[in-house]
Recover the amino acids of this structure.
């Protein structure tokens, strides 16, 4: 994401409410969740629910990571807006990148 000219905040090992508070206080254009296996889907779903409950702005939530290769309906299982394999696709889905991969917004 940084290679495309965007700022990135990493929120590892934070409680979902702490992440939701960051999303509520800062204007993010996208929240990306990485999941590696089925065990992490419950955590992803909880995080999405808490963000949607506490964040005052509508923010795109994208799921990525090796779990995406599983082919199940991850969007319905987690409540994310998009499930995508790569960063450029995620940025395009959120309206942050044009088809030619030129950044169109500055995003925190």
């Amino acid at each position: 994401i940084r290679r495309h000219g965007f700022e990135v905040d990493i929120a590892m090992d934070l409680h979902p409410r702490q992440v939701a508070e960051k999303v509520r206080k800062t204007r993010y254009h996208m929240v990306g969740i990485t999941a590696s296996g089925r065990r992490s889907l419950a955590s992803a779903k909880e995080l999405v629910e808490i963000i949607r409950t506490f964040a005052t702005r509508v923010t795109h939530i994208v799921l990525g990571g090796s779990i995406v290769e599983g082919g199940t309906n991850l969007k319905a299982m987690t409540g994310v807006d998009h499930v995508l394999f790569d960063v450029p696709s995620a940025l395009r889905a959120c309206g942050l990148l044009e088809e030619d991969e030129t950044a169109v917004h500055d995003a925190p």
In short: The CA atoms of residues 47 and 54 lie 11 Å apart. The two ends are 11 Å apart (CA to CA).
